[in-house]
Amino acid sequence: MHYNYHITYHPGHKNRAVDALSQCEELTPMDHPEEEPQPLFLNAMGATANGNEADPERLELSPLFCQIAKVTEERIPSDEHIWELIQNKGNQQVPDNVIISDRIPYHQDQVYIPDIPSIKLHILCLYHDLPFARHLGQMGTYKLIKQAYWWENMTSYIHKYVKGCVTCAQNKHTTKRTHGT
User: Fold this and answer.
1) Domains in the chain: how many in total?
2) Which of 35, 168, 177, 180 shows the greatest Cβ crowding within 10 Å of its Cβ?
């Protein structure tokens, strides 16, 4: 089946079938000088995300940045928070192949996690549930966590956790054929 059509240009004064939005004066772009955007986040050196130096005189923390920082500190666990939990609750027996350094147990190059469910849940929240972790699935989450942490039966624990994740289940593509095909 072929369609036979031609695309031609009609200048504005000759185009009689113009829609209402293209004629509305409120929607036409105005030539206002653009304001210089203020950086929301700075790195430790005081540079903006594109690498430019921030002007210290104009620099002040926006209210949005303060709100984001407050929520982030209160609700998002960090590796440091997990290490504190390990130091405070990690007084349990550790296996022989675990070395303790600065009150943090290590299994080879990874931090050893004792059998405390709250610590494991903090880790899974940090590396699976948070938006920047992107719900990587079972293998992606396992690979991400194993870079820094280790505990016994870690693979099956992560497998069960991800299998029960509602977001992952909703976004998982189906491998079954549709009915009637």
Assistant:
1) 1
2) 168
- Cα 72 to chain center, whole Å? 12
Report pLDDT digits (tens) over 100-156: 888 888 998 999 998 889 899 989 988 898 777 788 889 999 999 999 999 999 999
Q: Could you tell me the CA-to-CA distances from 29 to 22, 24, 37 in Å, in that order?
A: 11, 11, 19
156 within a domain of the structure (yes/no): yes
HSE-up of 82 (CA within 13 Å, CB side)?
25
List of residues 6+ apart from 87 with CB closer than 8 A: 103, 104
CB of 126 closer than 8 Å to CB of 77: yes
- Burial label for 24, CB within 10 Å (0-12, 13-18, 19+), is exposed
Assigned token pair, 57: 């005189």
Per the structure, the complete domain to which residue 162 belongs is given by 77-171
